[in-house]
Amino acid sequence: MDGGQILLSYIKVWVVLLLLSATFQNSKLAAKNTEQDKKRKLAEENSGLISIDCGAEEDYRDNEDTGISYKTDKDFISTGKNKVVAPEYSSTTRYYGKMLNSLRIFPEGKMNCYTLKPSQGKNQNYYVRAFFHYGNYDSKNHTQIKFDLYFGVNYWDTVKETIENKYWLTYEIIHYSVTDTIYVCLVNTGSGVPFINGLDLLFLKDSPYGSMNRSLIPRVQADLGGHQPPATNRYPDDVYARIWWLNINLTDSVSNISTKANIDIQGSDNPCRLPVDVLRTAVQPRNGLNSLSYSYKIGYGDNPTPEFLVFFHFAEIEQSAPGERREFTITLNDLEYEPFTLEYLKPLTIRSNLSRAQEGLVRFSINATLRSDLPPILNAFEIFELRSLLDGNPDLCKMNTCEKKQGSFSVPVIASVISVSVLLLLSIITIFWRLKRGRLNVSLSSSVGLSLSLKSKNQPFTYTEIVSITNNFQTIIGEGGFGKVYLGNLNDGRQVAVKLLSQSSRQGYKEFLAEVQLLMIVHHRNLVSLVGYCNEKENMALVYEYMANGNLKDQLLENNTNMLNWRARLQIAVDAAQGLEYLHNGCRPPIVHRDLKSSNILLTENLQAKIADFGLSKAFANEGDSHVTTVPAGTPGYIDPEFRASGNLNKKSDVYSFGILLCELITGQPPLIRGHQGHTHILQWVSPLVERGDIQSIIDPRLQGEVNTNCAWKALEIALSCVPPTSIQRPDMSDILGELKECLAMEMSSEISMRGSVEMSLVLGTDMAPNLR
Fold first, then answer.
1. Distance, CA of 571 to CA of 304 (rounded, Å)
2. 595 has catalytic annotation
3. CA quadruple 425, 429, 432, 438: dihedral positive or negative?
């Protein structure tokens, strides 16, 4: 055993002793927390449903309607303050009891998290629902309160509540948890104090709604054909705790039908298990028509064309005459499904294939076939948006604690641990000194430390495997400062990009290890993912996810036949801003990219943008700190002039580069424009045109006729706000991201208004979106 192995063994012993010391000293606190967990789990195991009345003073049971046992949130969070809504907003509603009348607010801290520990544990699907009702609890009549809702470290949605909303908001998600603990977090974005009224978590045993790969966001759950005003049907009538809404914008082109007959839900083989009252009502076309048509807007903001699933629920509730049949087809976004027939009082659910929203809309029609004697019917339907939520940084909660932990170590415990630590550290130093005196070659360099870390966190590729993956380096798809990039194929069919370190590369072994370490702990949907790496002496390679549409620089070239349209460019800007904002504000410590440019913005097959090349990235100990460096950073045209003059590098250096990137997207021009008398910087080219107010000369001429002028001006203003000569004048990436999302929404609104109205039998408008109730 060499000196390095001996030293590593002592370090392991040190860590184990630390843990034993902490565990022994903290046993009483652990026992107390265990008892609380037992009480919590006992109540939950009775139904599989955890219902939390946030801000309530004591546990209670809703005996009138649901029989749900509500718990206070004292055992789930240790921060925040309890409040109640103003008397004029206080009410006891069916299915919700008094839960909406109390709330917990979080005036302190950027992120406050609820800690949920369901007894079923990890590797299970859960239905999570959060309730929000401002109710003028502070008597300030806020016109709007806005904050972000996170699922662990992953963005879930933005809560927007106002005094004008007499009802409440619900945000829902079906999520496959890979951990025993689930965090639901409220993040202060500077637009009001975050708050929450209620939180539900339901274990979905054997549910058809589960997904191990991506989460499902319920966008609408419509109970059609009811005769009451808009109302709800929920748990315990619905075993999956869905909230069914009646009569969502029904038009005069349909008629309601219903029955009082019993529908055997329990005996049915339909796994969706809809409540009987939902299946007892339906709609059908009026006046001998043979088609039902629906349209629902699902695409918003930074995700205008999301992927979605639709569940169509049917039950024949009219007894047909002998020989009559009801047969119909379903057409969903131009995809037609085979004909279906119904059996009397027997539920039938049709789940659609995975589809992508067209122009932000889900459109479907149900049409009677030529052989059908009866018109089509529809009892209920659900639309789910698919969301990729394991794209955040799983180590973020470790780096930036999500909540104040209950039962933290006491002062004596800390003192004991420190004492043991000092003794062990002194022992290790002594051993190391003696090993060194004995001429043993022990290295504690950063590269060795990184190597140990890498081997424990990821399965590396051998060089032989790299050769096989790339088919002996057959296809070159790029080249950079690190080396050439080759197309590869893994055994499971996935395409990858393999970046091979060249012998003459300016970036050597240290940079290689730094890039691997960074990519293994930083994960986001708008950052290129590392698949693996090879580290064999002279042969080093990085294996990335393959980006089918290459880089943004090539896409913007004049000779590119597949020109990016205006909306695609705005979406790319939002994607890139999201990735950069995550590096700056979602990571602790913050990460500065240092070389943001269009060639480092890679595009997927669906033109989703991801930031690449973290080889020169630096992490800073404190958010406000700058870093003085003599290492060249950046590419001509993108380099922050303040950094170039002073050597002070910080997050605002990336903001400057992002502003140049935005100018590229708007103008189609490179950062340095070639001319007869040399190169002109893009800002020098834009400035006189801005002074003349000549936006048409600024916009890429290939986009003429399709760009809304107001939207173009807003995008340009955002770009120019990023590039003042001094960093203190530049905004934070979170502000830039918010402005870009508004710009994209403006463009989408303009496109919709230009297309004009579309005739449809049923329109589910944005004012009745399922998260606004």
1. 8
2. yes
3. negative
Residue 134 in tokens? 């401002």
Q: What is the DSSP letter of 767?
A: G
What percentage of the chain carries pLDDT values higher than 70? 73
Q: Which amino acid is at 141?
A: N
Helix (H, G, I), strand (E, B) or coil at 220: strand
Band (427; pLDDT cuts 50, 70, 90): low
> Is 741 a known ligand-binding residue?
no
- Judge whether residue 15 has pLDDT over 90: no
Q: Would you state the pLDDT for residue 71?
A: 94
Rounded CA separation 197/555 (Å): 47
- Neighbouring C-beta atoms of residue 752, cutoff 10 Å: 15
Instruction: Give the residues across from 155 on adjacent strands.
Output: 150
Cβ atoms 611, 573 nearer than 8 A = no
Strand pairing class (476-479; 484-489): antiparallel
Q: How many helices (H) and strands (E) does the chain have?
A: 16, 40
Average pLDDT of the residues in 682-687: 94
From the list 74, 76, 93, 77, the residue with the least C-alpha distance to 85 is: 93
Q: Give burial (CB, 10 Å; 0-12/13-18/19+) of 600.
A: buried
Alpha helices in 305-410 (DSSP H): 396-399
Residue 307, Cβ density class (10 Å: 0-12 exposed, 13-18 middle, ≥19 buried): middle
Give CA–CA dist 733/188, Å, rounded. 15
Dihedral sign computed on CA atoms, order 430, 434, 435, 437 = positive
Identity of the residue numbered 503? Q
Give the integer Cα–Cα distance in Å for 387 and 354: 12
Residues 229-241 as b/e (b if ≥16 CB within 10 A, e otherwise) read eeebbbbebbbbb
Alpha-carbon distance of 626 to 727, in angstroms, equals 11
Measured CA to CA, the distance from residue 571 to residue 715 in angstroms comes to 12
Identify which has the larger pLDDT, 315 or 619: 315
Residue 680 has pLDDT above 80, yes or no: yes
Q: Which of 469, 461, 465 is nearest to 485 (CA)?
A: 469
- Domains of the chain (ranges; CATH) run 39-213 (2.60.120.260), 222-387 (2.60.120), 446-545 (3.30.200.20), 552-755 (1.10.510.10)
Question: β-strands 215-223, 244-246: how paired?
Answer: parallel
- Angular region, 276: left φ>0, alpha ψ -120 to 50, beta rest: alpha
Given a cut of 80, whether residue 266 has pLDDT beyond it is no
Amino acid at 727: S
Task: Out of 200, 595, 640, 654, pick the active-site residue.
Answer: 595
- The closest of 611, 553, 603, 609 to 587, measured between CA atoms, is 611
Least confident of 210-224, 235-249, 432-446, 571-585: 432-446
Residue 637 CA to residue 617 CA, distance in Å, equals 19
Measured distance CA(465)–CA(485) in Å, rounded: 16
545: its two tokens? 């996810």
Residue of 185, 591, 205, 527 lying closest to 388 (CA atoms): 527
Contact 543, 498 (CB under 8 A): yes
| Biggest alpha carbon–alpha carbon distance for the chain | 100
Residue pair 211/125 in contact (Cβ under 8 Å)? The answer is yes
